[in-house]
From TrEMBL, chains A, B:
Its cofactor is NAD(+). This is NAD-dependent epimerase/dehydratase family protein. Signal peptide: none annotated. It comes from Sphingobium rhizovicinum. Keywords: Decarboxylase, Lyase, NAD.
């Protein structure tokens, strides 16, 4: 008997890459994708013809089924500040009420994997951030619906593990970018690329010296593939996954302005509660996933993403953009 | 037209005191109490004969009504570590899914008040703790269901205020004790009193030097009464409410061993993730609630609580205790 797998947010940026990898597995019999297309896009899945895949267009918190799954991968959530700040209640429901719904659907002995975030560290006072760092999140602030619902979902799942013994894999992802990001996503790399290809004016908020660790999606999904479905791993998380090369937002803008003819940079007022720095301590990741490394330099990753954005913007995809405010993710 | 008020957890320790105060209000027409008697007790309400009060025995997250309320006071949650650690999923549901349910029941222009906790500060690195301190909570730890669901509920309500303009009052309560605490509550004062009156052996965990700020319930409810229902206050919270006299757990045990004949202290191994210190910075509280002070010394409060426990234990009330582990709250 093959495995039954459920992926929430499977039409999203990272989700659709995970789906591609899952479909390479010969031990998988059935793959259910739950997505409400809030930030996910149908075109992220249109290349898939595999009969094992079934798409359910539904909010994860409202999804109902009598089936039980061997593996559940919970990715449903907006990940970009303008999107979650516009609908904070819905963000909390997707993450936490979604997880409460999903824990009822795990086969006995089954596994739940969850994409948490480096945002659980808030505006960190130490760098790089190890998993043991408890973070500095303002739980009443304008970014809190995302940060706190990720934290509380980690808590829910860890407590389910402690009290009910569920098999768990939690990752904390650091700024992922690459093909299939929505052009209107609103975070730095995608924003700069969209702007470079349209208005030509790259908007940098604050002094641009806030740093991020930009992880190219192929590298990140390589790590997730190993971590989420290798049975021999006996570590529930949380596990930092990202690229530990730290680069300022301004440097990314400059690089893109250099490679796209006619693009220039415009400095704008700072965004409230934009973290000043973010860099993963990958010590544990290298222990748990030996041999894995982020291999794609940001220069190469940005070039690849630029090509993808060029094709996508040419074809006129994506709409339903939030307010045009950009909040560096 | 008088006010319609909803109190969740109204049969609980603090909730039932709030209900007593609410019934003194002549502007209140109808009071609905929602309580599932998980940690609340029917006997906390049996003295009330007021026709305006209606009790709904129901989980707050499942409560349904077509009524809308002018004021909602959300207190439903266990507050003692052994209780919430035994049922973490239920704890998250009571706080957060409860709040998600309640925000649909507010009259336009109505107010929601929420009892958050000093546990949002985790094991604090600064003392006393001002409301601006972002805390040090382990979001994967054994106490996290309570700490993180309180944090995430604060986030939900603040984001509802930011995006939908709801009227909000959030308090962070520091160790409250007094009459109507369950004798099997499991936190330090009630535990010591129960032990002093039964086995005679007061169990202190670790070195007993972990400090707390013990707030006598009458003082605390005086503050809540002002903050939750005075219209002229224009501050949504979070507001620390407590007694800022910091006393070690061991000193409380010694005091009780002194006043109860035959009682003695037994030192036990430490409890995981028991915060080392906890003391409110009350600067903001004194500005927002001028004239309010915690007036009852802990010596006086403990004596009053002892009398109440003596009466209660004599009458044989309360059962359904969790595992006997004590976790200093």
């Amino acid at each position: 008997m093959g495995k039954k797998v459920l992926v929430t947010g499977g039409a999203g940026f990272i989700g659709s890459h995970i789906v591609d990898r899952l479909l390479n597995r010969s031990d998988m019999e059935k793959l259910i994708i739950v997505d409400n297309f809030w930030t996910g896009l149908k075109q992220n899945l249109t290349h898939i013809k595999d009969q094992r895949m079934h798409l359910e267009t539904c909010d994860v918190e409202n999804f109902q089924t009598s089936e039980k799954f061997d593996e559940i991968i919970h990715l449903a959530s907006p990940a970009s500040p303008p999107w979650y700040m516009r609908e904070p209640v819905r963000t909390i429901k997707a993450n936490l009420v979604g997880a409460l719904n999903l824990i009822e659907m795990i086969q006995p002995g089954g596994r739940i994997s969850f994409a948490s975030t480096s945002e659980v560290y808030g505006d960190p006072l130490i760098t790089p951030q190890p998993e043991s760092y408890r973070g500095q999140v303002d739980c009443t602030g304008p970014r809190s619906s995302y940060d706190e619902s990720k934290r509380c979902t980690e808590s829910l799942l860890f407590e389910m593990r402690r009290t009910a013994g569920i098999d768990l894999r939690i990752v904390r992802l650091f700024n992922v970018y690459g093909p299939r990001t929505r052009p209107d996503d609103g975070r730095a790399v995608s924003n700069f690329l969209s702007q470079a290809l349209t208005t030509g004016e790259l908007t940098v908020y604050g002094d641009g010296l806030q740093s991020r660790s930009w992880g190219y999606v192929d590298d990140i999904v390589d790590a997730l593939e190993r971590y989420f479905w290798l049975d021999q791993i006996d570590y529930p998380g949380p596990l930092n996954v990202g690229n530990d090369r730290e680069i300022s937002v301004l440097d990314v803008a400059k690089f893109i302005a250099d490679i796209v003819p006619g693009a220039s940079i415009k400095m704008c007022p700072p965004i409230p509660q934009d973290p000043t720095n973010r860099r993963p301590d990958l010590t544990l990741c290298r222990q748990i996933l030996p041999g894995w490394e982020a291999k794609i330099s940001y220069e190469e990753g940005v070039r690849r993403t630029l090509e993808w954005f060029r094709d996508t913007l040419m074809s006129g995809a994506s709409s339903d953009a939030p307010d045009p405010v950009r909040l560096a993710g």
